[in-house]
Amino acid sequence: MSTASLPLPRRRGRRSLRALLGFGAATFAAAAIGAFAVRGTATEYDTLVRPSWAPPSWLFGPVWTVLYVSIAVAGWLAWQRAGWGPALWSYAAQLVLNAAWTPIFFGLGRYGLALVDIVALWLLVAATIVLFHRVSRPAAGLLAPYLAWVSFATALNAAIVTLN
Question: What is the CA radius of gyration of the chain?
Fold first, then answer.
């Protein structure tokens, strides 16, 4: 019998609400590092030589907003089912790499190093999905669009390294 089918305790009430807010705050912090620590990213992005399939800069904000909400809810769902354990350590590590990418890419202009970061991010998101699947399939499912977007962003980062 898989762990995902075992009846695990759910955390309810105020503690659960505080945890949801905590996951939201942690995810917001990762987003804020990218949004506030490095200003003018749209302008810099527009000046890069990009592949023809690169999206316009205005698209990133709406996509990441939806993804960050999904990331926060996924972490909270996994926590509700299993508490803090390996799945959430992986989750936390991917948030750190997520937060680091924008300052590396835009702040430092180190596109190759950013590619290393995003490949590691992709691996951690994939690992987190596997670990979440064992405790909460909905949590794992909420991370699937994130993995798809990070896959696309990895290809875009690699193309920018090549073209610039």
Answer: 17
